[in-house]
Design goal:
The chain is of the alpha/beta class. The chain has 52 helices and 22 strands. The protein starts with 7 loop residues before the first helix and ends in a 5-residue tail after the last helix.
Length: 1463
């Protein structure tokens, strides 16, 4: 029963063929039903359950009117008398708004929407978007935030933002997340999408723009409500009457409307949007889970205080932000101070910027808010690796898309991971985005040295993702195909074939009958390739053992019903079953085949250039593509045929280049068995692929001519050949020239020239040595008399002409026998005819069974019978045998003669095959064959008119004719002759003679009389038969015959242009036939057949080929071919660059670049001019005040004035200069604690009072400072402190400064909490060198590694983490070493748990163990102890890339200095 069940692979594949989306799609109605069922089950909304009227008449506290509440909410007894609270009185219910949204009045813009509860899990939303809305997972998530109201943005910045945003989304396959409404920054994004949509016609380039808005603030949302879903829901745009609400933006493709049960409350969606962004950022990037997740970037335009909170939270979560300077408000405030060191970002500076960019709102800002914003801006500026400011006037900032991608790459350069891991992540991101320009400028730089193995994951991703530009870039930067392409990698590539690819379906069919169903092996691929290339080839891949098979993971073709199950796309066998990595002999060939099978043109071109045997590879690709195109339909089939023609041209180009350089070497390439392609030759591949252009080129034809003439010289004329055939002694007179004689003569002439040159240039000794070196090459024995005779008669051209003479004699004998000597008793001439025919039969049998190409009988029989001349031969032989059988009987003697007469006609037609060798008649025969096909189909059309007219005419004239021969004469014969002008006389009564017909039909030699009337004249209406004849002649003689002429003319014109190529292609078969044909012509050929038969019986030996010498010659030949290929590609590239089309494109590109440069320079000049004018205005205003003070002072007295003298604004101290970055902006280390002032206290929801850096020292007065008090209830040894008295606070005051929170926090005691940081080190041998390593530990929730230390709890000698990973013996040893070891550091630690009254102080020790130490081996096993305790424990190298926090890096530097190493 199990054998009847299809494997999972085949089932998934079958399901994929009827599926167009990720859930199911058999019909639109079924899809809607599936979506509706899933959404109503999984998606909820929120609604008020308790109506209590607010101060606003008729409105509940939730904001909705009374009529929008349910009856249960209006009469709720459960909550009667309670005060309305959001958390208690709003509950979830199945959503009633989802489906498709169509915006009225704006064409066919259709999007998808859903109303969701604010408590919906992000996993559910992601499943909805990817599986039910059928969106492919993004390669990048762009979260656009900023001003929610309409704001002004400069035209150039607006244009650059829109163009850059769309470019990065389109090129990387990104999702854009916005607020979704038709205001503010969301409107700018929508306009950008609209501009792109109207300017492109590509369906594949759709931009995914997801709007996440608050349901309660959407205007006209009632049009979207329907419990059964809206398909579609028509949404009216009414911006004028929206009031405080907002309309949805028409240019967004998807909407997630977040509902918390209230009306008119903005910002409800922020929390869910953040969760969704966080969840998406944790999903793997691309099809292969290589550890790289989907990157998220936040793009900020304008914005208010809420936008500042969004930026701060995003960067705290590790999301990079791109700020667009010039967009206004918060974006400009951050941009102005972004290059300043944090110490210079003071409250006064922020106030000045807020006053400048928040002109109207500034007066509403209180001091605490400004301090809070200053603190957040300081923290934002500290995270410089996550902050990118795009400035129009800054050099290199010309594209917003580049700025966005550079921000993501910069964010990946974090200090918590190794350098090469950073490089790999950046490369994976660039591959995922398919941005080669970013990879070239940011990743593959001169300061980075890549190893081939580091690029392998990116190479695999680029191949699977069909990113040819990246594959080429990776090859240029160090990927070694021999290292990359192992058998496991190739199987991985075949596991990721596109579900729609034909080759995957073909492999699936083989898997149905495979012994190990559901598994794919290279043997299966090899079988399919052999089917495509031809059975004459050997398998390209050997069939592996059972343990080499590779299980195909179901997820690779998981495109049917959605599932939450996750699969490893790089599934490998268990460790115990793994075999050593098996390298492939020709990785470029394997990748080329893989690309060709999927019709990936660009990838195939890259790997074809890498192939060793490039001509054979191109011809094999042409063969494979043509075979696949026969099974495909539509555009795919046309694309495959175009690609097949392309590789035929490539093969022609390389072979022409080779033949031009060295024709002998090129001919070797043509007939050399290629081991890389199944042991076949280039010529055989070209013939199997029917590459007429390749076969018709001069080099191949010259080789065929050489085959045709054999040992004779190619310029030997025909009359000389015929004369020597008749008088063979003329062979020895020099009438004809042999090729070997010509070669001897050329070498002798070359030797004489060399001797003459060397005798003048070299001494006698050198001359003798030179002659000796070339003696073997010069000495070549001439042909003997016997070899000349044998060589002459074994030439194909001689065999051909002997067979022509023999065939003409055979036809003459046949005609003589039929006409003059056909007697009852066969004569001697007739018996000779039968013997002659018998020799022809034996020759046909020899051709059928002769298999030098290794086709095997079935394939050979198909090839034999497919030839039209062989069909004629077989037909003529069988007819002759049947005629002979009848002729030998007395009763059938005459019938046999008639049959043989017809057979003579067929033998005469067979004579046309002889003319195929003629350059003049050969193409005409091809035209005749094509015209005969047209004529055959034309006869069907003609038969309709002939039979229609013949039956009608005969039935009108003759009554009840029962003689079949006369019926056929009247119905077919006479109408057919009428077409050629033989009008029958019986069509009317003019020539009627009753004596020439029979009334009863009794006379078989006379026609039957027509229907007669009383006076014995024909009774049929003459006008009717005449009319029928005219109509018949009109259609048959004028219409159909002219149609036939037109068809034949079209065929002639169509074939005439290609007849030369077709003739040259078919010429090979004739040459091949006579090249392998026995020398003797029929009937003497029967002796050759007898000799061949006896040799097969007696001498059953196979030819053995010496392969060692040929292998060396083959390597040299392939190297020469590769060199010629490089020349061809260089010439091809040069020709393309000099083409008119390419020159026009280059000119257009240069003009575009010039225009962009002019626009950017104009923007820079205008921005600079604005700044200078602004500065000038301020200078003039200050000057005016100063002058007014002078006037007032002079008016009162000489020395006094009623007002203070103002200070003139100095140019060198302007606001612009104040905001210029100092040199230490990026390298400055904080002089105060930073982690201890983070706004959110770790592992809690407690918020610190904001403490800007300038207010951290206790010496600086901070009147507004009101810190919160927090004591962790889980902390021991201290009672909770509700409020601290001032004396207690003074006794336990943080020595560095304020932290924003009082109490002991999560520490163990007030005051200093002592910690120990032991740096345990050892030397590790790496070859001849040694590296210093240290022990690092990390808990699951931590981002950084750290030393195995920590804060000491009361009554502890060693930290908790150190106790967990050490054995009892090691604990005692470490404790002893701590008491005697030197201190590396002792003092305050900037810990995030510090408060105003509790802080961490640490002492660092270096505990070094030598290799001969007894504890060294136990230390090496510490990893297992650490893992058992839930912590990761690793030995890591001491260097500057160690992923430690800042203060521990300083300690590690001190340890490195102690051991005299440079980290």
């Amino acid at each position: 029963m199990e054998d009847l069940i299809e494997p999972q692979f085949v089932q998934n594949l079958a399901a994929s063929s009827v599926k167009t989306s990720k859930y199911m799609s058999f019909s639109p109605s079924f899809q809607r039903f599936s979506i509706t069922s899933w959404i109503t089950e999984n998606i909820k909304k929120k609604e008020c359950q308790y109506y209590t009227e607010h101060s606003s008449k008729g409105r509940c506290h939730c904001g909705y009117l009374k009529e929008f509440h349910s009856a249960e909410a209006l009469k709720s007894e459960e909550f009667l008398g309670e005060t309305w609270k959001l958390q208690r009185h709003v509950r979830e219910a199945p959503t009633d708004a989802f489906g498709e949204i169509t915006f009225t009045g704006v064409g066919q813009k259709v999007g998808k929407f859903v109303r969701v509860s604010s408590d919906t899990s992000p996993e559910t939303l992601y499943q909805l978007v990817t599986e039910y809305w059928n969106l492919s997972p993004p390669n990048l998530l762009i979260s656009v935030t900023g001003g929610a109201k309409n704001f002004y943005m400069k035209a150039q910045l607006k244009s650059m933002f829109r163009r850059g945003l769309i470019k990065v989304a389109h090129t990387t396959g990104a999702w854009i997340l916005t607020g979704g409404t038709n205001t503010g920054v969301m409107k700018h994004v929508g306009t950008a999408v609209q501009d792109y949509t109207t300017s492109t016609i590509s369906k594949d380039g759709k931009i995914v723009t997801i709007g996440i808005a608050t349901w309660g603030t959407v205007h006209n949302r009632q049009y979207l409500v329907d419990p059964e879903g809206k398909f579609p829901g028509y949404y009216p745009l009414d911006v004028e009457s929206q009031g405080r609400l907002s309309c949805l933006d028409i240019n967004h493709s998807h909407f997630i409307l977040v509902d918390n049960g209230t009306h008119g409350s903005y910002g409800v969606e922020i929390a869910l949007r953040s969760k969704l962004e966080k969840f998406i950022s944790m999903q793997p990037l691309g099809k292969i889970d290589g550890g790289v997740t989907i990157p998220v970037v936040c793009v900020v335009l304008e914005g208010g205080p809420g936008t500042l909170d969004t930026i701060y939270n995003a960067m705290i979560n590790g999301t990079p932000c791109v700020i667009l300077e010039g967009s206004g408000r918060v974006a400009d405030v951050i941009a102005q101070v972004a290059n300043l060191p944090v110490s210079q970002i003071r409250v006064s500076v922020i106030k000045k910027q807020l006053k400048r960019f928040f002109t109207k709102e500034y007066d509403t800002f209180d001091e605490v808010k400004i301090i809070t914003w200053t603190k957040k801006i300081q923290d934002i500026i500290r995270m410089r690796q996550l902050l990118t400011v795009f400035r129009i006037d800054e050099e290199g900032h010309n594209d917003v898309d580049v700025a966005i991608l550079q921000a993501l790459l910069k964010a990946s350069k974090t200090s918590d991971s190794q350098e090469r891991q950073n490089w790999a992540r950046q490369l994976e991101l660039a591959v995922g985005w398919n941005r080669v320009d970013i990879a070239k400028s940011e990743i593959f730089t001169e300061d980075r040295q890549w190893k081939s193995r580091d690029l392998h994951p990116a190479m695999l991703s680029a191949l699977i993702g069909d990113k040819a530009a990246f594959v080429k870039l990776l090859l240029e930067n160090g990927v070694c195909l021999n290292e990359f392409m192992i058998e496991q990698t190739l199987l991985e590539l075949y596991n990721h074939l596109q579900p729609s690819s034909l080759i995957l379906h073909k492999i699936a069919k083989r898997l149905k009958t495979a012994k190990h169903a559901g598994r794919i092996t290279l043997g299966l691929v090899s079988d399919e390739l052999r089917q495509l290339l031809g059975s004459f080839t050997q398998p390209l891949y050997p069939k592996p053992a059972a343990h080499h098979r590779f299980e195909m993971p179901p997820s690779d073709i998981r495109i049917t019903v959605p599932t939450n199950r996750k699969f490893d796309l790089q599934m490998t066998p268990p460790v115990s079953e793994r075999t050593p990595e098996k390298t492939l002999e020709d990785p470029a060939r394997d990748l080329f085949i893989w690309a060709i099978l999927q019709n990936r043109r660009e990838l195939a071109e890259i790997f074809w250039e890498q192939c060793k045997d490039c001509i054979a590879a191109a011809l094999a690709a042409s063969r494979i593509l043509k075979k696949l195109a026969e099974e495909e339909e539509g555009d795919k089939s046309n694309d495959m045929r175009d690609l097949a023609d392309h590789y035929e041209k490539q093969a022609i180009g390389v072979f022409t280049e080779c033949y031009t350089r060295d024709n002998l070497q090129a001919e070797k390439l043509l007939i050399r068995p290629s081991q890389a392609w199944g042991g076949t030759t280039c010529l055989r591949l070209a013939l199997q692929a029917k590459n007429t252009s390749f076969v018709a080129q001069g080099g191949v034809q010259a080789f065929m001519t050489k085959m045709w003439f054999g040992e004779l010289a190619e310029d030997t004329t025909i009359w000389k050949v015929l004369l020597c055939m008749l008088f063979f002694p003329l062979i020895y007179t020099g009438l004809i020239t042999f090729r070997q004689d010509e070669e001897i003569q050329r070498k002798q002439e070359r030797k004489e020239d060399i001797d003459n040159m060397e005798s003048m240039a070299l001494g006698p000794a050198k001359l003798r040595s030179h002659i000796c070196l070339n003696q073997e090459q010069i000495e070549q024995q001439p042909l003997t008399c016997l070899t000349r005779l044998l060589s002459f008669f074994s030439c194909a051209v001689v065999k051909f002409y002997w067979n022509i003479i023999s065939y003409f004699i055979f036809l003459c004998l046949f005609a003589y026998t039929l006409m003059m000597n056909f007697q009852v008793t066969p004569s001697g001439w007739e018996i000779l005819l039968y013997v002659w025919l018998l020799s022809l039969v034996f020759e046909e049998i020899r051709q059928l069974f002769n298999d030098p190409d290794g086709f095997r009988f079935r394939r050979k029989a198909k090839i034999y019978i497919s030839d039209i001349w062989n069909k004629l031969d077989v037909l003529a032989i069988f007819i002759f045998i049947s005629g002979l059988a009848c002729r030998l009987t007395t009763a059938g003697f005459y019938v046999g003669k008639i049959i043989l007469c017809f057979d003579f006609i067929i033998f005469c037609l067979r004579l046309m095959a002889i003319f195929a060798v003629s350059r003049t008649l050969g193409p005409k025969i091809i035209i005749v064959k094509r015209m005969m096909k047209d004529m055959f189909f034309f006869m069907f059309l003609l038969a309709v008119f002939v039979l229609a007219y013949g039956v009608a005419k005969h039935a009108i004239r003759i009554e009840n004719e029962d003689r079949l021969d006369w019926i056929l004469r009247g119905v077919v014969y006479e109408p057919y002759l009428t077409i050629f002008g033989l009008i029958p006389s019986n069509i009317d009564n003019v020539g009627f003679d009753i004596t020439k017909c029979t009334l009863t039909g009794s006379d078989p030699l006379m026609p039957r009389c027509p229907v007669l009337d009383s006076d014995q004249t024909p009774a049929f209406p003459v006008w009717l038969t005449t009319t029928l004849l005219c109509v018949y002649l009109l259609f048959a003689n004028i219409l159909l015959l002219n149609l036939l002429v037109a068809m034949l003319s079209y065929t002639f014109q169509e074939v005439q242009d290609n007849t030369d190529q077709i003739w040259k292609f078919q010429r090979y078969e004739l040459i091949k036939e006579y090249h392998s044909r026995p020398p003797a012509p029929p009937p003497l050929i029967i002796l050759s057949h007898l000799f061949l038969f006896l040799r097969c019986l007696i001498l059953r030996k196979h030819k053995q080929i010496e392969s060692s010498k040929w292998h060396i010659e083959e390597e040299e030949l392939l190297s020469w071919e590769a060199f010629m290929k490089e020349n061809f590609l260089a010439n091809q590239c040069q020709a393309q660059s000099q083409s008119t089309e390419n020159m026009i494109l280059d000119t257009a590109k240069k003009v575009g670049v010039a225009v962009d440069l002019l626009e950017s320079e104009q923007g820079k000049d205008s921005a600079s001019m604005v700044k200078r004018l602004d500065l000038l205005e301020k200078q003039v205003a200050k000057s005016n005040i100063a002058l007014q003070w002078i006037v007032n002072a002079l008016q009162t007295s000489v020395l006094q004035s009623s007002v203070d003298a103002p200070m003139l604004l100095r140019l060198e101290s302007t606001e612009a200069d104040e905001l210029e970055p100092s040199q230490e902006a990026r390298s400055e280390k904080p002089q105060q604690h930073v982690n201890a002032t983070h706004l959110i206290y770790p592992s809690t929801t407690e918020t610190r009072f904001p403490v800007p850096e300038e207010y951290v020292p206790w010496e600086v007065k901070f009147p507004l400072y009101k810190p919160t008090i927090y004591n962790d209830s889980s902390s021991r040894r201290n009672t909770d402190i509700v409020q601290l008295d001032k004396p207690i606070a003074d006794n336990f005051r943080n020595p560095v400064g304020r932290t924003g929170i009082e109490g002991k926090g999560s520490l163990y005691r007030l005051g200093p909490n002592q910690a120990i940081d032991p740096v345990i080190t050892r030397w590790k041998k790496l070859g001849e060198a040694s590296v210093l390593e240290f022990i690092a530990v990390r808990e699951k929730e931590d981002d950084f590694w750290s030393f195995p230390g920590g804060v000491l709890q009361p009554d502890e000698d060693l930290p908790k983490r150190l106790n967990l990973i050490l054995s009892k013996k090691l604990k005692e040893r470490i404790a002893d070493m701590l008491r005697t070891s030197a201190k590396m550091y002792e003092g305050y630690v900037d810990d995030c748990r510090n408060t105003d009254n509790a802080w961490v102080e640490t002492t660092a020790f270096n505990l070094h163990f030598e290799g001969n130490d007894v504890a060294h081996e136990e230390l090496s096993r510490m990893g297992s102890a650490g893992s058992a305790s839930g912590m990761q424990v690793q030995w890591q190298e001491v260097n500057d890339q160690a992923p430690l926090c800042a203060y521990q890096k300083d300690i590690l530097q001190t340890v490195a200095d102690l051991h005299h190493i440079q980290p």
